[in-house]
Amino acid sequence: MTVQTSQSQVYSQLENTFQQVYQLQHLSAIAHWDAATMMPSGGNQARGRALAEISGLINQLIGSAQVGEWLQSAQEHSQELSDWQQANVREMHRKWLNATSISNELIKAKSIAGSRCEHAWRTYRSDNNWIDFQPLLQEVIQLTIEESQQRGEAMGLKPYDALLNLYEPGQLSSEIDPIFAKLKQFLPEFIHQVVARQTHDSLILPQGKFPVEQQKALGCELMKRVGFNFEHGRLDVSHHPFCGGVPEDVRITTRYQEDDFSESLMGVLHETGHAKYEQGLPEDWLQQPVGEARCMGIHESQSLFQEMQIARGKPFLQFAAPILKKFLGNAETPEQCWQADNLFLLNNRVKPGFIRVNADEVSYPLHVILRYEIEKDLINGQLKVADLPEVWDQKMQTYLGLSSKDNYRDGCMQDIHWTDGSLGYFPTYTLGAMNAAQIFSAARQAINGLEQQIAKGDFSQLNQWQRDNIWSKGSFYRVNDLMRHATGETLNPDYFINHLQQRFLS
What we know:
This protein has a three-stranded mixed beta sheet with strand order 1-3-2, sandwiched between helices. The mean pLDDT is 95. The protein is built from 20 helices and three strands. β2 and β3 (249-254) form a beta hairpin. The N and C termini lie far apart (69 Å). Helices cover 64% and strands 3% of the residues. The protein folds into two domains: 3-167; 212-346 and 427-505, Neurolysin, domain 3, CATH 1.10.1370. By secondary structure, the protein is an all-alpha fold. It has helices at 3-37, 44-62, 65-76, 83-100, 104-126, 130-155, 159-167, 173-198, 212-226, 261-279, 296-311, 314-328, 340-346, 364-379, 388-400, 427-446, 450-455, 460-469, 479-487, 494-505; strands at residues 233-237, 243-246, 249-254. The longest helix has 35 residues, at 3-37.
């Protein structure tokens, strides 16, 4: 047997192992979707145990000593691999390091505690019951602190950066801090300016009730028009909107209010941005790490690209106006309400509020910065879970001028992320917003008459541009290289600031 043949076999064994991992992740993803949408409450404990078992199996497969030996061999003979194979080995190694940096016992304990906490959150949040929720969250946070310490020691990173690395490979909090500091300096005064200007707007508000079935039909119609493939995905309802499943079977969810269709509509389009990214990943590499989405900051850029850069813009609303009227028009709402200019005003109101997922585009980053600062302090031991409501209230007053005292439902209990220990995730939302603004600027330069195409409901060239420059690349590039490939430079927050100024004050 030649050396080249043996190395080819080593690489094939790695591919086979990660293909097995992908199949287990497929089942886990659908089981998570079912737990959030369809599962009866009595199935929670059994589902939690099953998911914990799958999580343990995945970690054992990825983190085995044999995989470590194969990876070392593949890296030493990387010149025998194609560019895509080399990138695949790089991503395999990152996953192996993540899997081997914490114990299987901790993985299972965290999965069980997270499942229990998340399930209880659905009830306790509705009841504004912080007292009973706190010990469940405390357990999850303590396990997450242990995780951050184990990962940090293995990777040579600070504890919080070790968690951040799970979602933004290579990103450090020391790099995020100055970017967020710039936004904190810009946004408060900008919010005041926009709110003052919008007081002069004349709005025509929708009236009456908008039945859930009509809202769902509208959402499905717009999903289809912007490029979602219903042969490989579906839309359902959950307490907290999300995009899950796998690229071949993407599951997105939303929630409805009959007196306000905008929350569901924009939520559906937001999740559709995530879903289109998943459906556009490179088909030849779907079952390998290099075929996955690059990172959460890029993933969030695609959802905010669809929602903020496109769906809330005037060209899209010109296209969507007659469709909204068709599905939602009623006797109570004046005809003028469904005009594009009025819809633009309705969908771009700036008013600081309590709920992150309902926040406007301008105040949203402050919600993220608040959580980013809190979770850093939780992981670093500078903040106790018991003190979370008080600190949350202080930061809400400082950043958004609102008090969340005793309002746990709309304060520190409003998000699902911390219930399963997903700390390090929140920064990706605002990194994504900045990426989205920069990517849309590049697309506008590359596609002649892009706004006119959007106004006609033609998304073919735009989807193809995204597919060529973002989606089909999977994790072939590192994030900075991907941004250079797509836009010509690494992340530059000025694009986001300029976008806000042009949309809200120009």
